[in-house]
C-alpha cells in the first residue's frame, strides 16, 4: 500500500484540476492497480460512476469465470447481444400487455442459466420456476449466479414427461427455446380438458391442469444449422401452426439476430 505521505503527492496532482479528492478512494484505487486486483478496481469505478448500482450479479459472473474458466464462453454467450435482444423483446411485450404483478408465478421452460430473464423478473413477481433438462446450468444459476434470489425454484426435468402442480397457479409460461423441443401443441396439458372453464374438462384429466389466467411467451427461430436445433421454423406462420389450439395470440414479432431471425408469439391460453 502506498503510504499516506506519498499519497499526498497524488492528491496534489489531482487537485490541480479537481476540487474534491477522496484520499481513501484514491489509496484503494492505487493499491488495486499495484496488486493487479482488477475486479476490486472495477467495483470502485462502478460505485463512483453509478453510486446506486447493484453489481452483485456482475461480480458473481466474474468470480464464476475465474473459478470455472472452461464455461466462460457458454456464460458469456448467454448474455450476448443476440440473447439480450430476444429476451428484452419478450420482456417488453409482456410488460406492454400488463398482466404480471407481485403475486404472479412465472415458469421458464428450457431456462439454461436464466441469465437475462431471472434477474429481470425476480423483483416483479412472486415466484419463478426454472426448468431445464440439463442439471449443470441450473446448479450454476442456483448456487453461483443467483444465490441471493430467494423466489426461484430450479427443476431438472423433461417438461413433456412430467406434470407439475405449479402449472395450476402459473400466470406466464416462457419458452425461448422452442427450436430445441417438440412443438408446443404436443404438450398434452395444453389440450382440451386442462382448464376448469373447458367444456367437460373432467372427462379428459379429472381435474384442472392449468390456471384460468395463464399467458405464454414463446420464441423459435430459423437457425437450422445450430446443434440442438431440432424444431426450427421459417416464419411466424409456421410457428403459429405449432401453437396449441387454445393459444390466443395477442402479440407477434420478428426479432433480428446476426445468425437469422427469431419468431415470437405472446398470448393467453383460453378455454376450449
Which H/E pattern describes the elements? HHHHHHEHEHEEEHEE
| CATH topology (level 3) name of the largest domain | Rossmann fold
Main sheet attributes: strand count, strand direction, barrel closure: 7 strands, mixed
The span between the termini is 71 Å
Specify the CATH homologous superfamily of the largest domain.
Answer: Vaccinia Virus protein VP39
Indicate the radius of gyration in whole angstroms.
Answer: 24 Å
Shape summary: elongated
Report the sheet-strand fraction.
15-25%
CATH class of the largest domain: Alpha Beta
Backbone structural class: alpha/beta
- The strand count comes to 7
- Please, what is the average pLDDT? 90
Give the fraction of residues assigned to helices.
25-40%
Question: What is the correct CATH architecture of the largest domain?
Answer: 3-Layer(aba) Sandwich
Q: Walk across the major sheet and give the strand order.
A: 3-2-1-4-5-7-6
Structure annotation, total helices: 9
Number of domains: 2
Low-confidence stretches: none
